Amino acid sequence: MLYHLLYPLHTDFSVLYIFRYITFRTIYATITALVISFIIGPWLIQKLSELKVGQSIRKLGPESHFKKEGTPTMGGTLILLAIVIPTLLWADLTNIYVWVVLLVTVGFGMVGFVDDYRKVTMRNSDGITPRQKMFWMFLIALTAGLILYAYPPFQTTLAFPFFKDLRPELGIFYIPFAILVIVGTSHSVNLTDGLDGLAIGPMIIATGTYLIFAYAVGNARIAEYLQISGVQGAGELSVLCGAMVGAGLGFLWFNTYPAQVFMGDVGSLSLGGALGTIAVITKQELVLIIVGGIFVVEALSVIFQVTSFRLYGKRIFRMAPIHHHFELKGWAEPKIIVRFWIISIILALVALSTLKLR
């Protein structure tokens, strides 16, 4: 909005020419998201407490979590506001990729909101059924995939990290692949959201990494120099990624151990969906396995645990997702969180190295 209002005036006021630069708007989208979080956060937490929108804790979980019963949840609403508002203010709203990511972010957020609301009103930790949740998430991801497929400049090739010439053409099959990436990432982030700050930390790191990817693939010269698939217009997603980083940092202020508020499904589903969609648009889908390694391991730990128990009647981990396994081994919650953050940083650096190692 500010871009469309102020940039056209640069012919009369040369200082406004700065609005043309993605880097400038990315920085201020990040700052705006932080300011929104710090202003609205305390008020929202207070309102959630007054409305008794408290987290229900599964009785099968670690005993250390029982004391968290009643902590305000649905704090992901703050994250959504801190992403959407700065994006609308600072991004080029004629860019279709921005709207596709916002569609998935808000759509998944609404699914998560309904899930959280039912958990709160029914006073249990189940929410909507997995089948209902999967249906709506699949439908939203399908819509995003169809829009991208129908958009002429968008490429349906698949880029492999470390291999500059390995780019198979998927054609129509790119749509189900995109759905898998978007929905799979969303569920993985949702599974990771089990400790104070555990999910939002790696999410900030991953989003910051994709901010760089978006800027690189959106700049024809940089993309050609790095020999990566250029995506015209994808650079504008850097502004949205900046808003996500700012929103994540702002939320972490209140979510850090011991948490004043939990993000709930409204936050984890929307953030994961946004990250997966950005990975699809920037043609860095497979790199997401590296960048989001923590999310991947958390999801795999659940899959392996369930499969092993159903087939052999044995558990691989003391409890899944894997962060609970470390809790039951005696690791303090802050230690698990910080160590997972450190691993996320290392994985992000490895992912960024794929831009040159080809």
Description:
There is one protein chain. The protein is globular and about 60 Å long. The chain is mostly helical and 358 residues long. It starts with a helix and ends in a 5-residue tail after the last helix. The chain has 14 helices and no strands. The chain has one domain. Helix 2 (22-50) runs antiparallel to helix 3, helix 3 (76-90) runs parallel beside helix 10 (264-281) and helix 5 crosses helix 6. Helix content is 65%, strand content 0%.
Write down the Rg: 20 Å
Strand content: under 5%
* Major sheet size, sense and barrel closure: none
Give the overall shape, derived from the CA principal axes: globular
String of helices and strands: HHHHHHHHHHHHHH
Low-pLDDT residue intervals, each spanning 5 or more residues: none
How does the helix and strand content classify structurally?
mainly alpha
Percent range for helical residues?
55-70%
Number of helices: 14
The rounded distance between the terminal residues' Cα atoms is 39 Å
Number of separate strands? 0
Mean pLDDT: 91
Number of domains: 1
Task: Give a quick rundown of the structure.
By secondary structure, the protein is mainly α. It has helices spanning 2-6, 22-50, 76-90, 96-122, 130-150, 174-192, 200-218, 220-226, 237-255, 264-281, 288-291, 293-312, 322-328, 333-353. The mean pLDDT is 91.
